[in-house]
Every structure is written in C-alpha cells, then in structure tokens.
Amino acid sequence: MAKTKTQMKIFTIADYKEEEKWLENQHSNGWKLIKINLPFFYTFEKVQPEKVIYQLDFKEKEATDDYIKMYEDYGWQHLGYYLGWNYFRKYESAAISESDKEIFSDTESKIEMIEQVFKTRMLPVLTIFVAVMLPNFCGLDKLDFSPSEIVFTIIYLVVFALYIWGIIHCGIKLTKMKKELEK
Amino acid sequence: MDSKLRKIYVPMSETAFYILYSLQQPQHGYGIGQAVKEMTNDEVSISPGTMYGTLSKMEKDGLIDLVKEEDKRKIYQITDLGKEVLKIELNRIKRIYKNSLGEKYYG
Q1: Within 10 Å of residue B55's Cβ, how many Cβ atoms?
Q2: How far is the alpha carbon of A97 from chain B, nearest alpha carbon, in Å?
C-alpha cells in the first residue's frame, strides 16, 4: 500500500486558482491528489515528484458522461466532482503546446465561469444572509442574556462574522478577477 | 433572427466562428478542435472548457443541433438558423478583408 496523507486546507469559491497551484505544488513534491472527502480535506498518495497541471471547472450540475469524455479526448483526467467543482489533471509531459495546458482557451469562457460562480453560489448565499442572518442579528438585543443564551449568541456572532468575511472576500476577489480578464 | 441572437453572434468570437463553421459537417467537440487546428496551422486552438461551453450555448440558442451520441461523444450539426448567422458573419469577414486591401465591398 502506498503511503497516504490527509491535509486540511481552506479555499473559498474565489480561490480556485490558488487551489490549482497548491495541488500542483503537492504533486511536484510527490503528493498526488486521490480524493477530497469532506470540505477542505484533501487526501494524497506518495508518488514520484512530477510536474502536473491541475485545473478546476465550475459546473452547477454534476458532470455528465459527454462532458468527461470531451475532456478525456483532450488528455485531461477527471478526478471528480466536488461542491460544484470538477477537478482535472494532466501530466505536463503530455501537453504539446501552451494552449494544451489550460481548460479554457479564451477570455470569454473564463469570465463566464466567474459569472456562473457568482450566480449560483454568491446570490443564494447573499439571499440567506439578508433573509435569515440579518433579521436574527437585529433580534439579538431582545435576548435576556442567560448563560446558555450568551454561549449561543457568541457562536452566532462568530458565524455571522465569518459569513460577512466570506461574502466580502469572495465578492471582491471574483469581481477583481473578472475586471482583470476584461482589460 | 431576433435581436438578442444578433447581439450575441454578430459579430461573434473567433472561437464561435470556427466552431459554427466546422459544424457544416456533423462533428463532436474534440473533432472540431482538431479540424480547427488543422485548417489554421495550429494558430487557433480551442480548449475543452471553452468548446463544451460554446457548444452548449449554441445548442440552446438553436444554432446547432444534436445529431446523435456516439461512444459518449455528442455529435452536432449546424441548423438553418445557424447557417443564417454564419452567412451574415462570413459577409462581414469578406467585407473587412476586401476593405483591408483598399477595395470597396458591395456584398
């Protein structure tokens, strides 16, 4: 049995470029991605260090056979679908040209993917925030501050803060990436 | 052709043009990519993400039709609407070409 390791690392929906780079680094250090179990938990297998390209493609729905087949025709191995993301891998030695190293060949399709992430991930999150989180937050002053309520309130505030951070971070980053591509 | 389609496809991107042009013959995504590479001497290459997205969009917009599925590959072909759009685009390209040579173009 090959040696394996599981590592935790948090990437938001706006950090897929960083995630690709991180996976490439792991592989060049001899750790090949074999699966993602829970969110943010990556399992690797010890292999020969190699230069490998990792690419992520966002799709709202689970990958279909024809979708995977097309990528395979182009020499990409489909590693799986996880929380909206399709993970692909190609050994650099198998890439015959620069354009062969990317799953998108024009700016329009890169922008389109960002817009998809915005529409299917950011909008629902924002809706929940406005419809559920915000009204709850406004209701906090009505509490009578018993010990259990204080604990609950603290947990709630932490989640609330994380939520706001997530929305701002992803919103700014995705917008920036899109602007960069539109230049 | 409605104005929405006109806005998207006139003029169209290089990727869209080569895909639509290639689909005058039935073909699957990877096959289109190979044909485009061949005819442009590797100058234009269309990656799978871009190919898949453009084909899906063109099918939705009625420019191409799914002919059949063979060994998990979807084979598409241009529709009458697609031909109409392609004709407009070809005329536009011819005009640009003629004008670039300092000639007038009368359609």
Answers
A1: 22
A2: 10
- First CA to last CA across chain B, in angstroms? 19
| Whole-structure pTM value | 0.90
How far apart (Å, rounded) are the C-alpha atoms in residues A128 and A167?
11
**Domain extent listing, chain A:** 4-101, 107-182
Give the CATH class of B3-100: mainly alpha
Residue A67 with chain B: CB contacts under 8 Å? 52
Q: Measure B103 CA to nearest chain A CA, in Å.
A: 32
Q: Which of A93, A83, A66 is nearest to A15 (CA)?
A: A83
Q: What is the mean pLDDT of residues A142-155?
A: 79
Q: E-strand spans in chain B?
A: 27-28, 64-70, 73-78
Domain ranges of chain B: 3-100
Q: Which residue has the tokens 């697609």?
A: B82
Burial bucket for residue A97 (CB in 10 Å: 0-12, 13-18, 19+)? exposed
Average pLDDT by stretches of 10, chain B with 107 residues: 86 95 98 97 96 97 97 97 96 94 84
Helix (H, G, I), strand (E, B) or coil at A18: helix
Distances (CA, A) of A20 to A11, A53, A168: 10, 8, 22
Contact A70 B50 (CB under 8 A): no
**Structure confidence at residue A143 (pLDDT):** 66
Q: How many CB pairs under 8 A join A and B?
A: 65
ipTM reported for the complex, 2 dp: 0.92
Place of tokens 């603290």: A154
DSSP A142: G
Alpha helix stretches (DSSP H) within A9-92: 16-28, 65-73
